[in-house]
Amino acid sequence: MRAHADDLRAEGAPNNLVEQVAVDCRSAELEPRMRALCDFAAKLTRESAAVSAPDIEALRAQGLDDPGIHDAIQVVAYFNYVNRVADAVGVEDEPEWGGGTSDV
After folding, report:
1. Cα–Cα distance for residue pair 88/95, rounded to 1 Å
2. Rounded (5°) CA angle 63-51-40
3. Which of 10, 49, 55, 100 has minimal Cβ neighbours within 10 Å of its Cβ?
4. Intra-chain end-to-end CA distance of the chain, in Å
5. Residue 104 included in any domain
6. pTM above the 0.85 mark?
7. Mind listing the pLDDT tens digit for each residue in 57-76?
């Protein structure tokens, strides 16, 4: 978690936003476009078979084009894949990455 927080800070996110996202991204103060992406990522992760045209239209309404939407799907799917493989084989976080804690 710490590595992701550091990446978010490196992109210019203020500390309070980084902390909000770490605790619960659904209650974080996100811009509408980022909120739409986060909501889409959560749905794709938790209930991928339920993703439908209205979900894609919600992303288009926030200015994403088809290549951008495709990229978002690929990134979410890839991280879901990697996390599932890591969980299945028992990979543990390296200590310098925060050891799996939510310490941001």
Report:
1. 20
2. 45
3. 49
4. 7
5. no
6. no
7. 999 999 999 999 999 999 99
Tokens at 98, concatenated: 């925060």
Residues 66 and 37 both lie in one domain: yes
To 5 degrees, how large is the angle CA 58–CA 71–CA 44?
55
Residues 70, 19: one domain? Answer: no
Please count the CA atoms within 13 angstroms of the CA of 84 that sit on its side-chain side. Answer: 8
Share of the chain above pLDDT 70, in %: 89
Quick one: 25 and 37 in the same domain?
Answer: no
Residues sharing a CB contact under 8 Å with residue 37, sequence separation 6 or more, in sequence order: 59, 62, 64, 72
User: Residue 62 sits in which domain range?
Assistant: 31-92
